[in-house]
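Support case: 9WN complex. Customer-provided input:
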Amino acid sequence: GSLVYDPAESTGSLHLGAARVLNGNWTGTSTVPSRGLYPHQWSWDSAFIAIGLRHLSPLRAQTELETLLGAQWADGRIPHIVFNPSVPLDAYFPSPDFWRSSTAGRAAGAPRTVQTSGIVQPPVHALAVWLVHQADPGLSRARSFLPRMYPRLAAWHRYLLHRRDLGGGGLASVVHPWEQGMDNSPCWDAPLSRVTPAPARSFRRADLDHGAPEDRPTDLDYGRYVRLATDYRDGEYADGGGEFAVEDPAFNALLIASEHALARIAQELGAAGTARHARAERLTAALVERLWDPAEGMFFCRDVYGESEGKTEGEGGGRGESGALGSEQRSRSSALAKERRSPRGALIPERSVAGLLPLILPALPRDIAATLVGTASGPHFGLGGATRLVPSYDLTGDAFDPHRYWRGPAWFNTNWLLERGLRLHGEHARADGLRAALLDTAGESGFAEYVDPYTGEACGALGFSWTAALTLDLLH
Ligand code: 9WN
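Agent response - structure generated as follows:
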């Protein structure tokens, strides 16, 4: 053959490679993120996987989402893991015997037959359902895909907007770092520092059988993850009683994007979507109101129970508040006055890629979208300049580490979302550049879980499903 570079041929082999990964990770009813490290079904993984799978097999993409939504709890939550009963318990930690969903989750309406975790992950699902429908509307209608999915998605959003509005400002809070999906992001360092870790000997990490310890979260992180999850379980997964609550810009942006998708699904089913679009616009305004930092030019997380300080003063969260008794009256009324001016808790001054992802929102004010593009392209994230792909965390941040999971490496799902956001806001040249970098890096890295943001060097698991799926989506 010829040694001349043939883009068509390389595109063909990229397509083939991605399809091979997804076929290898398919179990018959859903797709595992990776065979070794993550041998069950994960919630936001499945949404991204379905978005790519629709180009290979619309039927499998529908099935992927049906399996996940089939494990929904009666209170509306979609669990972050649906366990495969044929996988040994010690293959992944925490396993079903830790979460005990069918007993500890009974009051919250956990399913009886299938075992799940009790926490959630980012709500990418309505967006995925809508995109999967669009790939083959005929098949979708023949299988009543949308009529079956719609009530479940509506209940899911209801759960997040009502039970999870722990900050009282209309946004959803996550109650565990695993819920936001960027497990060891430096954003959680401050809120997690208040959590007493579970003793190291009370659990065994299975992830270290597959991943390099220097690339994974630390044992101290795990101690705190286990403590938070144990307390949530022991409280029968009732919301509002925990120690950790964070309003995250990516989680909420995905909820809002999904609310817009739900509006389209409603319209397709013959109902009016206007109320949902209007709600999505109100939520966009709440996101800006509570999480936008104009001086920094990006969104930050809000630590709902954090002590207020500096420019983001709030009422202190009501936890562990102390104060001289004599001045109690005075501090109470000043707290009330502050509460009127600014929301509860404190912004977390760490720059995470999560703070750029509201770029996917159509109702984002123009000036904010333009500022976000500038921040993404600047020294902290290096889009189109210093980096190949946008890192998960601030290149100049003290905690930056190009190989440690969500503390610096670049991930394909967040870059795929940014690519969409750039295109949505008319930044076609930047979007094209990011798309090309995503495709090159995915192929060269063997569809790695995540990569060094500068070099594209593969990290974590290879043959990772959402990397392959989102590659397919970009190719179409
Ligand atoms: C905990 C499956 C999941 C992703 C998360 C990623 C990682 C799990 C873990 O893997 O989290 O949920 O064991 O580290 O952080 O985003 O959904 O791919």
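The longest helix spans residues 249-268.

Case will auto-close in a few days if no follow-up is received.
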